Automatic annotation (TrEMBL):
PANTHER family: SERINE/THREONINE-PROTEIN KINASE 16, SERINE_THREONINE-PROTEIN KINASE 16
Gene3D superfamilies per the UniProt record, alphabetical: Transferase(Phosphotransferase) domain 1
EC class: transferase
Protein kinase domain boundaries: 28-312
Protein name: non-specific serine/threonine protein kinase
Species classification: Eukaryota, Metazoa, Spiralia, Lophotrochozoa, Mollusca
Gene source species: Patella caerulea
Recorded catalytic activity of this chain's protein: L-threonyl-[protein] + ATP = O-phospho-L-threonyl-[protein] + ADP + H(+); L-seryl-[protein] + ATP = O-phospho-L-seryl-[protein] + ADP + H(+)
């Protein structure tokens, strides 16, 4: 999904004549369209009473199955209350009883959540790239620790949940630089036993639809029969995100640009690190540790947090 644009939005003025949306006795005025993906749109809205700017996610459902998936996102957002996970402001399901000429629409699910003016980690990466700059290592580790803490809340839930689409575009930055994991539409119960080839193909198809290729774990490209997939799919993605935050691109970006197979590059862990990056070797060591091709060799989130906390303290002491 495209992340929330910033500069254009903040120039918007009067809401006169704009559409109003009522959700649970709260009225919101739409200001502008700020993002869209394959399944939804994001509008910038203003609370009619408080004038607070918020983000409204509109998910158009073309079937009852679409509706079920959209409402699952709402339920998952209701489940987690953590500083590093996007909170739910309001939500509703609007049935639609007519058909358009092009395609039937069963319903629309509306999700109101905070609006983050600073955009996403991906937006930050683009700004740094344009300036020819990079993140400082203490800042990088501190932000990465926040992302890990958000995932810990999901992985420690009973039953554990995996996000399955952790990437820079899905991590917003609050005004105080707190990273916020968002877009829980791909999240699901983490531990899945694959007993048949049909179950493997089904999970593979879901991953292809909802999990971004450049950050997708190897076991989701080729789901093996008689295997178990667990929350360590997110640990692989964390490794990709750490690499991207340091080097301002996905570890498989160049493979993608060449038009080569992402799946082969991921399964072969075709990782290349930039020389003379200015970062300590802890970046490369941690990325390599997180991105083990065999998920059983990857750490769980608690071990990751213990390691990253050490690195945060070490980098702060070096400053």
């Amino acid at each position: 999904m495209n992340t929330f644009g910033i500069s254009l939005i903040l120039k918007m003025g009067c809401v006169c004549g704009k559409e109003s949306v009522n959700i649970n006795n709260r009225r919101f005025y739409t200001r502008s369209r700020i993002g869209e993906g394959g399944f939804s749109f994001i509008d910038l809205v203003e609370d009619a009473q408080t004038h607070k700017l918020l983000a409204l996610k509109r998910i158009t459902c073309h079937s009852k199955e679409d509706e079920k998936v959209a409402m699952q996102e709402v339920e998952i957002m209701k489940t987690f209350h953590h500083i590093n996970i996007v909170p739910l402001e309001e939500s509703t399901l609007n049935p639609i009883n007519h058909y358009t000429k092009a395609v039937d629409v069963v319903s629309e699910v509306l999700i109101v959540m905070p609006f983050y003016r600073r955009g996403s980690v991906e937006d930050m990466m683009e700004r740094l790239k344009k300036k020819g700059e990079k993140m400082g290592e203490p800042e990088l580790w501190t932000m990465f620790l926040g992302i890990c803490n958000g995932l810990k809340a999901m992985h420690h839930h009973n039953p554990p949940y995996a996000h399955r689409d952790i990437k820079p575009a899905n991590i917003m930055i609050a005004d105080d630089s707190t990273p916020i994991i968002m877009d829980l539409g791909s999240a699901a119960k983490a531990r899945v036993e694959i007993k048949t080839s049909a179950e493997g193909r089904a999970l593979q198809d879901i991953a292809a639809e909802r999990c971004s290729m450049l950050y997708r774990a190897p076991e989701l490209f080729n789901v093996e029969t008689n295997s178990t997939v667990d929350e360590r799919t997110d640990i692989w993605s964390l490794g990709c995100v750490l690499y991207a935050m340091a080097f301002l691109e996905s570890p498989f970006e160049k493979v993608y640009q060449r038009g080569d197979s992402i799946a082969l590059a991921v399964i072969g862990r075709n990782l290349k690190f930039k020389e003379n990056s200015g970062f300590s070797n802890k970046i490369e060591e941690t990325v390599t540790w997180l991105m083990s091709v065999n998920p059983m060799e990857r750490p769980f989130i608690d071990a990751v947090i213990d390691k990253v906390e050490e690195l945060v303290h070490a980098s702060e002491n070096r400053v």
